Amino acid sequence: MAKRIVKRSWAENFKIKVVEPIKMTTREYREKVAKETGYNTFLLKSEDVYIDLLTDSGTNAMSDNQWAGMMIGDEAYAGSRNFYHLWDNVKKYYGIPYFVPTHQGRAAEHLVSKILIKPGDFVPGNMYFTTTRLHQELAGATFVDVIIDEAHDPANLHPFKGNIDLGKLDKLVKEVGAKKIPYISFAAPVNMAGGQPVSMANIKEVEKFCQKHGIKMWLDATRAVENAYFIKMREKGYAQKTIAQILKEMCSHFEGIWVSAKKDLMVNIGGILATRNKRVFEEARNLVVVYEGLHTYGGLAGRDMEAMARGIEEMVDFDTIKARIGQVEYFGKRLMEYKVPIVQPIGGHAIFLDAKKFLPHLKQIEFPAQTLANEIYIDSGVRGMERGIVSAGRNPKTGEHNMPKLELVRLTFPRRVYTQAHIDVATESVVAVFDERKKIKGLKMVYEPKYLRFFQARFDKLK
Ligand SMILES: *Cc1c(COP(=O)(O)O)cnc(C)c1O
User: Which among 88, 110, 142, 309 is least surrounded, fewest beta carbons within 10 Å?
Assistant: First the structure.
């Protein structure tokens, strides 16, 4: 009998109009360049990478509509038309009245931290993000992780592992007093936990708590559209709402947001600071002139702001976000067929390999995730990044390594860039390394920069 179709497939909601050739390399060549670049995938040249899953930050393919928008960039120093288009869309889609453009997300974090934090303050957040926490610390705050415990367990299937634990938050308020907490640094979803979302119910609960104690809520809305998608799929009462409605509802609970436009907005550069607080807005609009550029371009070209404005319109399209998260899901499910240990549930932007389970014979100080990212690169030219002890940095007070519970390799999907065949190649490479895992030796750090060390640290192989 002829084979029958049991399940219908879906495909991405775009077709390819422009292509960028990629170089194929040999294993021998990759061994050489990995050594030369200190076994840090951030230090590889992009042309030596076959499938680049380092990050989804700024690596997106823009649409023809966005490229068309680039041609109508108004490069006036002051009052660019594209700035006003972008501002309109920030109001319309995030639902927040005041807006300051920045060159990327961390620049908005810098301004928010400078404006809201006093030295000696405490900033609670759900897990942490590297640049976010650093700016909070540079402004004089101590960051306190108040994410639910489930987030630290890669195998736990909680549908909203990004949620804040009200008990932990309450404990902090009791210890230090609400006056020392300028705001909650809420991320939705949580990048470092594996792209795990936050539920609307949790946002509302935390808001209630914060209102009682007079604490502000700020949202890292960098991938808020992915969070909105998970709310639609998983949370009761949201199945019939549009992504745009859910995004706006999420943001309605916050005094302000910062966004790295290099993610959800499907552009290559850009950042957003938006707030309902006029005083914060005015201060940010003033400070942006010091650090970024005039408040109508914030370090961006007019054409970049036009691409962002159009990206906002595209990002809330259901089929676009479904195709994006669908690719990640496909990759995760294929790896699970081969019993490769990954963080579950599968997150929105990336697959996170559980390096502690993958390489149980390595101690954390032998950098298992860093090692694994390198082994995958050497096997196939697929580039991922470490999200473990190297990324966690050192405790600023004691100088000791932070020892995160999660020791992960992140394989992140640029939006609209790769096909399912690329995903199959990446799957087979991870499985090939998994089959040889017992032979893999760890690394030692031979150079350590002071800030965000994971970007520039260098390693050598342990004998
Ligand atoms: C990328 C990112 C940032 C920082 O944004 P940049 O544009 O890289 O400066 C902040 N928060 C989250 C969750 C991110 O993923």
Answer: 88
Q: Which pLDDT score is estimated for 1?
A: 77
Amino acid at 419: T
Tell me which of 39, 83, 129, 377 is the catalytic residue: 129
pLDDT band at 86 (very low <50, low <70, confident <90, very high): very high
Is-contact 89 312, C-beta < 8 A?
A: yes
What tens digit of pLDDT does each residue of 449-459 get? 998 999 999 99
DSSP 400: P
- Cβ(185) – ligand 1 distance below 6 Å: no
Contact partners, residue 432, CB within 8 Å, separation at least 6? 379, 380
User: What distances in angstroms separate CA 10 from CA 112, 182, 324, 326, one per listed residue?
Assistant: 41, 46, 12, 9
Residue 252 near residue 95, CB atoms below 8 Å:
yes
| Ligand 1: nearest atom to the Cα of 187 | 13
Spatial separation of the C-alpha atoms in residues 50 and 59, rounded to whole Å:
14
CA distance 439 to 388: 21
Distance CA 353, CA 375 (A): 13
CB-side exposure of 422: number of CA atoms within 13 Å? 20
- Alpha carbon of 106 to ligand 1 centroid (Å): 6
Single out the catalytic residue among 55, 59, 130, 320.
130
Angle at 227 (CA atoms; ends 238, 146), nearest 5 degrees: 110
| Domains of the chain, earliest start first | 27-56+318-461 (3.90.1150.10), 64-315 (3.40.640.10)
pLDDT for res 133: 95
For every residue of 103-170, DSSP letters joined together read SSHHHHHHHHHHHH--TT-EEEESS--HHHHHHHHHTT-EEEE-B-GGGG-TT---TTTT-B-HHHHH
pLDDT at 123: 98
- How big is the chain by its Cα radius of gyration, in Å? 22
CB atoms within 10 A of CB 290: 9
Could you write out the DSSP letters of every residue in 220-258?
E-TTHHHHHHHHHHHSTT-TTS-HHHHHHHHHTT-SEEE
Instruction: List the beta bridge partners of residue 460.
Output: 444
Which tens digits make up the pLDDT trace of 329-354? 999 999 999 999 999 999 999 999 99
Decide: 260 in ligand 1 pocket, CB within 6 A: yes
Q: Which of 220, 264, 304, 354 is catalytic?
A: 220
Rounded distance between C-alpha atoms, residue 164 and residue 168, angstroms: 8
d(CA 176, CA 169): 11
Index of the ligand 1 atom closest to the CA of residue 106? 9
H helices present in 338-413, as ranges: 355-358, 368-380, 389-392
Q: Which candidate, 454, 455, 459, 458, places its Cα nearest to that of 388?
A: 454
